[in-house]
Amino acid sequence: MRKSLLASAVLAAIAVPALADSVTVYGQANAALEFASKDAGGAAGKVTTTRVDAGSNLNTPSRIGFKGEEDLGGGLKAWFQIEQAVALDDAGADGNTNSNFASREGWVGLSGDFGKFGLGRGKSPYTNLADTFDGLVDAAGNLESYNVDSVVKGTNGVITKRFNNAVRYDTNSIEGFKGAIMYGTGENKTSTTPNTNYFSIGANYTAGALFVGAAYNDETNLGGVSGVKHDAWLLAGTYSIDTLKFGLGYQTAKQTINFAVPAAYLGAATTINTVKRDAFLTSVSYGMGPTTLKAGAVFFQKAKLETSTLGNGDVANSDFVRWTLGADYAFSKATYALFEISGDSIKGAFKGSPLGNAAVPTFNAAGALTSAGAATTSAVSFGLSHKF
């Protein structure tokens, strides 16, 4: 009897028509065997690890998503998207594969002749443009120009990759031109704490083999602290000749932090008002039948500090290169194998500004590095990816 009732319930559920005109289930199952090393120098030495990864250490983590739309008539449509990261290796919950549903994208909105409007959470126009380069990397490492470890205290990078509590508008394509604007709110305002605000805007143009784009990102009152601000500009473009594709980009970023540091950090007590850094981005890929060769690098220039009492200037040995080299082999349109070598090459064992965690370096009054901070990293990866 119970089996009959259960079968009837399942059949009834299947028989209910979907409210949306179309619902698509999509995703990727990605995993890689990685041999990673980290060399902090000195007593810390070099540490090598072997891991099977499909989570936070994988630049293109596995995910499953649902998207659909409903025709409302008169050219107006309702749409939605829910995308969740998953960890095939250990079903764990971490930065890329957290247990909250819609950890990657979560939207509902309207679209029509006016463009596309949405409310929810997801990548910003700035991040979308930066993915022109970062999309080249699948396994360990990345080419994220906006995500530099320890750039400033308490943050993961120059900008926030995805905005929460967001509203976004995208134009339709007009003679190859497209634009997008997005705002997110921290929803953290109190009688003594200002609201954290996130803003991003971008535009791009496509004409045959040519793609060019520009984006701006501005984040204010970060962490609920008045005056703490990150902003960045990114210019990027690609050009294809048959199966050969080149990419070039330039980013300039500034963090206004007004952060007091003791004498042990810079040789004298002061306040670091701003940290600035420029970066040049490059990428190239070449297809030969089922094989695609790929390489890319982000050349991060020296960090520039503005202080309250020690003046302004470049931080010695703070420039570094983030790089990748690899190949993909396509078994089909949905499945491919990958091989990648990637890492960060750091001349002075320093990627960020001398702020606030146990791994930060120490500087003297002249701005010279006197102790090591971040480590040089590298990884060799072999992986498989299946898209559905």
Shape: globular
CATH fold name: Porin
Low-confidence stretches: 1-16, 149-156, 349-373
Mean pLDDT: 81
Proportion of strand residues: over 45%
Main CATH class: Mainly Beta
Tell me the number of structural domains. Answer: 1
* Sequence of secondary-structure elements: HEEEEEEHEEEEEEHEEEEEEEEE
Largest sheet features: 16 strands, antiparallel, barrel
Which architecture does the CATH hierarchy give at level 2?
Answer: Beta Barrel
Oligomer: single chain
Percentage of residues assigned to helices: under 10%
SS-based class: mainly beta
Helices, by number, come to 3
Can you tell me about this structure?
The protein is built from three helices and 21 strands. By secondary structure, the protein is mostly beta strands. It has a single domain (40-387), classed as Porin (Beta Barrel). It has a 16-stranded antiparallel barrel. It has a two-stranded antiparallel sheet with strand order 19-20. The chain is globular, with a radius of gyration of 23 Å. The chain starts with a helix and ends with a strand.
Short descriptors:
single chain; 388 residues; mainly beta; Porin; two-stranded antiparallel ribbon; 3 helices; disordered N terminus
Please outline what is shown here.
The protein is mostly beta strands and 388 residues long. It has one domain: Porin (Beta Barrel). It contains three helices and 21 strands.
